[in-house]
Design goal:
The complex is a heterotrimer of chains A (100), B (172) and C (372). Chain A has helices at 3-24, 28-53, 57-87. With 100 residues, chain A is mainly alpha-helical. In chain A, α1 (3-24) runs antiparallel to α2. The radius of gyration of chain A is 17 Å and the shape is elongated. By secondary structure, chain B is an all-alpha fold. Chain B has a domain at 1-78: NADH-ubiquinone/plastoquinone oxidoreductase chain 6, subunit NuoJ (Four Helix Bundle (Hemerythrin (Met), subunit A), Up-down Bundle). Helices cover 74% and strands 0% of the residues of chain B. Chain B has seven helices and no strands. Chain C has 15 helices and two strands. Chain C starts with 7 loop residues before the first helix and ends with a helix. The chains are: A mainly alpha (100), B mainly alpha (172), C mainly alpha (372).
Amino acid sequence: MSLPELGLLFSVLLFLIGLFAVMFRSNILFQMMGIELLLNAANLAFVSASKMVGNLDGQVVVFFVMTIAACEAAVGLALVVALYRERSTTETDDLTLLRG
Amino acid sequence: MTTFVFAFLGILALFLGVFLITRRNPVAAAMLLISDFVILAVLYGLLDAHFAAAAQVIVYAGAIMVVFVFLIMMLNIPNEQIRFTRVTNIEWLLAFVGIVAAVIVAQASSLGWLQTAFPNAARILPNAPSENTRNVAALMFTDYLWSFELVGFLIIAAMIGAVVIAKQGRKH
Amino acid sequence: MTETNMPIIVQTIATVLKIFVLLGIALQVAPIMTWIERRQMAVTQRRLGPNRVGILPKLFNNWGFFGLGQPLADAVKLLFKEDFFPEGVHKTFYFLAPVIISTTAMMCTMGIPFGHSVVVFGQYIDLRPVSLDVGFLFLFAMSALGVYGVALAGWASNSKYPLLGGLRSSAQMISYEISMGLALIPPVLIFGTFDLQKIIALQAQGFWGIFYAPVSFLIFTVTMFAETNRLPFDLAEGESELVAGFLTEYGGMRWSQFFLGEYTMMFTLSALSTCLFLGGYELPFVTHEMLLSFVQKLTTLDVAFAQWIVVLINLGVLILKSAFFLLLFAQVRFTLPRFRYDQLMRLGWKVLLPIALANVVVTAIVLGFIRF
């Protein structure tokens, strides 16, 4: 297999790992790390595709994804701090206020 | 040789990923995630995306994850308080397995798909590694200028949002 | 200027040799600088400082040759201290933290070019171990990873003061890294490349970068202190508030690894600043060709040999210029008092960042008017 094909394969597997963390870990910190893995898998796919197709558009998109990851981390972590202040927990399962 | 290194690093990245999501200690997980990012940066480098590799280390490993680690250390949650899995039910597991199966099938059947989907894209640029930064920048500030501006706007909005959330918490 | 058409074994040997040269320089900085600092500090504060341990104790009977043997004695002492894990530390990270600090610092050093390209068997060899397209961004990336060493040391020690030190340091490093990165953009805009060797060549043809981007130079110099956790920004250690900050639980060789990392990082950032703002390894007003022909005339040697003499001169010039910054580090250390933490944050976010941003915008506008 060529490098970009391998890269695409790895990106898919990495995406699944991240998805697993988001779906099955209950701690919000781990879920956010899972989201970072998802975004990175997307980045790897973009870079591989860029190499495969032979133009640079994929590499440009990588920067947009990184920016979005930075936004997500900033807002998400601020929310985690607020959550920990209010409820002193980081477990998503404990957030049952809306359930009544 | 390059393929071998690439495959080795990729498999290492996957193992680190699996290792990371099965940790109980968030600091250990964050450190594994950082090493994963660095390995991914090397993969980008091997795929001739040098500037993306540098940005990966600087932005992801050097900025976003510092905030992560900072927060984890600041909250300093005892390991016992971190539960491993959510209260999960069989539907979720089935859904995940279904996704995995679908993805594997899709992956296996579509490896040659990209080349046929973009046969010699119109905007081919010389992708010599020595000019990578210049070419990416040229593309980013011509064809993607509006996306770039929008993303810049988005990050300012996110920054203000984060400040607002942090300030609100302080009033209590 | 590429090395791609060389056999891989030659490339490997060349790279290893280059790594040895740079490591040889960078690792000497820590012992020599400690001696200089302690002597200079003693002179400033009217104390004696280390003046006993001599290299040739018999010859200079009681005087001890200015105590030059002190770093050596220190190193031996640290080597023979017990290697221990305090109770309750997270062992893996307690072990890893100093390794991360020293490794990233040495990796950083690998991005510094220490001489003009030489021609060996008709092939150009760039005199720097890492020649990537991204140039000094590599160096910047590695220095960004260094913060984890400090943060981890604070966390793994499982103790109050180190944790505070680690937290302070990670917040400080994020704050100042932004200004540092922004300060480096004007030189990149002006010279149009990330490649340090090209930047140095352009400076040799024109003026030093400090004349093109003086504000960048000032900001970079200030942030350099913050990035290496040196006074007046050493709040991560802050012995009057936090015992020794993140270093509190460390001793022996682990402690000296932190020390080595810090001084290597100081040298690297000094060398980077030299390359960007002070003309790098080139002599002022003398281009490489002039120097080469001068050396050839003086020694009546072939180009193949004369270029190595030029490389030695380049190396000497780089070290001298970096020494200026290193001495500045030392001088500032016992001239300025430590900042308070809120003052540090205010300086970083409310003074340096706006100035750096304005600097980028103004440089871009001026360049736009000049070029178009």
